[in-house]
Write a structure and sequence with these properties.
261 residues, 2 domains, binds zinc ion, alpha/beta
């Protein structure tokens, strides 16, 4: 509790500092609300270096000292490479706390060694599979991607089997969101098979969630929505799941849901 409070205070302080840093960055030439609108390789590298300057001046030496000799993260995340999905959505202080692996479509199979490292060697307590609204990889896997590069086709081939719900009926956006969730379910099932010993021993929870910046799940824009806990996808059963027993009722109601079931 004490640790959490300290973390929350640091988080709030960091927020204010970051807001100032980003405001300065946003006012620089070539930026529109912090986003480069006329990107070239040169302007992009300027963004990288100036962004790092803003970052390193936000934190003092003490911030880095606790983890210079090793990491002790609590969470392994496999999420999409999509630029709209970042750790700030669930932890402002992700340093030394989140072991994160990213690829298109948040697929364990394509990064199994990295996920193994987080779950078995660190070892983290939760494996979070994080999909998101408007996932381009899921959309691509729902259609004809035969003209893509060999590398992209390989990534989409492993995603495609979980697109079974795309029967062509109903609004496309609804089917798209359902398939985002189905992919999360498929990845959780894959993770449960890999780590069944740790889940059975109560040392690990495999949780599936969706980051919803379109409010398609109806829990507000920017919500993280839990859609699968250790293979359980029934909303009422998830709400009563022991893994969530340190959350308040209000927190559970606003962060557990489903569109696919
Ligand atoms: Zn995506």
């Amino acid at each position: 509790m004490k640790k959490f409070f300290k973390k929350a205070v640091i988080g709030l302080g960091t927020c204010a500092l970051l807001a100032g840093a980003y405001a300065a960055l946003a006012s620089a030439p070539g930026h529109d609300n912090g986003h480069i609108v006329t990107a070239t390789p040169n302007s992009t590298m300027k963004m990288v270096i100036q962004g790092n300057d803003a970052f390193k001046h936000t934190y003092n030496r003490e911030h880095f000292e606790p983890f210079q000799d090793g990491q002790v993260p609590n969470l392994t995340v496999i999420t999409c490479a999509d630029s709209r999905v970042h750790t700030q959505l669930f932890d402002f202080q992700a340093d030394n706390n989140i072991f994160i692996i990213r690829n298109v479509g948040n697929q364990i199979q394509n990064s199994e060694g990295s996920v193994d490292y987080g779950v078995r060697h660190l070892p983290t307590k939760v494996l979070l599979v994080l999909g998101h609204s408007s996932c381009g990889a899921v959309k691509a896997a729902m259609g004809d991607y035969s003209g893509e590069t060999p590398g992209i086709k390989e990534e989409l081939d492993t995603l495609q089997p979980s697109m079974a719900m795309d029967d062509g009926s109903g609004p496309f956006n609804h089917r798209w969101a359902q398939n985002v969730e189905r992919n999360v379910d498929a990845q959780v099932a894959y993770g449960l098979e890999l780590y069944k010993d740790k889940v059975a021993a109560g040392e690990l929870a495999v949780v599936g969630a969706v980051y919803d910046f379109n409010n398609l799940w109806g829990k507000d824009f920017g919500s993280l929505i839990v859609v699968n806990i250790n293979g359980e996808t029934d909303v009422n059963k998830m709400m009563g799941h022991p893994v969530l027993n340190e959350l308040s009722k209000a927190e559970i109601v606003t962060h557990v849901g489903s569109r696919a079931k």
